[in-house]
Design brief:
The protein has 162 residues and is mostly helical. Among the domains are: 38 residues; 44 residues; 27 residues, no CATH class. It is 76% helix and 0% strand. It has six helices and no strands. The longest helix is centred in the middle third of the chain and has 49 residues.
């Protein structure tokens, strides 16, 4: 066998192995195959986890469910008792945040910096810069940590806590 033939044969074998590895990787990455062998549930319900780890009997599962539901209801009742205080603090926080933003926007130092930037940029660049500032200000707004949005709507001022 000539050296040239051996080299060609080795290259063909390496190519075929690479092709086989690529096909195997694509098959493994296919969601159906991966979920069948690898995917584990992200969140196991607490009762199922307790039943699995503690080997609970059906009667124990029923009793535990009843007790845990009572504890959850108690927790919710206590939370509702404090909900008005949460609302007051959240409203106070929102007002403070708005005052902070207003002070920043109206500060002479900020206006001086904007004037310096305007002096550096051409009119076309300044227009783009202003448009981007408005865009980034919209995207940078922090969500209200005090209220949960429901169905994509803005929260009401007197929204109830869960």
């Amino acid at each position: 066998m000539s050296r040239r033939f051996q080299t060609s044969l080795i290259l063909v074998v390496v190519f075929c192995l690479g092709l086989a590895a690529g096909v195997a990787g694509m098959i493994w990455a296919w969601p159906g195959v991966r979920s069948r062998f690898v995917h584990k549930p992200q969140h196991e319900p607490p009762m199922a986890r307790m039943q699995r780890t503690l080997s609970l009997t059906p009667q124990q599962v029923t009793e535990m469910s009843t007790v845990l539901k009572g504890v959850g209801d108690l927790r919710h009742q206590i939370h509702l008792k404090y909900a008005p205080e949460y609302e007051r603090l959240c409203d106070q926080s929102a007002q403070t945040l708005q005052r902070e933003r207003d002070e920043y926007v109206q500060s002479p130092e900020r206006q001086k910096a904007l004037d310096q930037i305007h002096g550096i940029l051409s009119d076309a660049q300044w227009k783009i810069f202003q448009d981007r500032m408005v865009e980034s200000g919209k995207s940078r707004q922090q969500p209200d940590p005090c209220h949960r949005k429901q169905s994509g709507q803005a929260p009401a001022a007197g929204a109830q806590h869960r």
